[in-house]
């Protein structure tokens, strides 16, 4: 499978990855707990550890989008650690509380269906115990997210703008190309080949035809670099190449949609719509 095929179905693969990891973790933990209970001689039905682990896993899966959204707001990157690390540590408190509430609710439903009653115990002590486990789980999720992003960037190719100072490229006042590093290879792509640019956490994604290249840059930073080169901000998270805009489709809400010559579409917010129309005119 090539990167472009993967990216077209990226959400399906990502959801599948989280579900697979959760299923493996739940099954492994449930089997281990059952063995430990049997060895200890405790009178616990075999289905109970499965309910405990599956309720926890399902709740974690439901909370993954919340974790990803928070990480986009407080990304762990160089220069932002002093703000992001304390933010993530504080976020583990409500995150763990949501996990415990969801987990207990599912367990109570499962026990009621089996004709029993689930007792979580004293909330202060029980939640303190769960919180210590949840912090480790939260950090593991963050590690998986950043490792996945690192591998994906290396696979699809990571871009960097060529600026003044490179000995092999003539010095230019404004970068007009970028260097893509992909699986040990390097190649150049001109800026005017970019169709549009999309915000993506610590990076922006450069859309060039069917290909997408991540670039470590902010939207404000890349807008400044591309000033005067025929690009326009059309949304808080999108910049388009004006030469690629074929049509603007307006909506009653004041927003719009830009149709590109290559067949793609980009959302246009009403904040930028009039300025885009003027520039295209």
UniProtKB/TrEMBL annotation:
GO terms for molecular function: DNA binding. Pfam families: LytTR. InterPro entries: LytR-like (IPR046947), LytTR_DNA-bd_dom (IPR007492), LytTR_MHYE (IPR012379). Residues 178-281 form the HTH LytTR-type domain. Gene3D superfamilies: LytTr DNA-binding domain. Keywords: DNA-binding, Membrane, Transmembrane, Transmembrane helix, Two-component regulatory system. It comes from the Bacteria. SMART domains: LytTR. The chain crosses the membrane at residues 12-30, 50-68, 89-115, 135-152. This is LytTR family DNA-binding domain-containing protein.
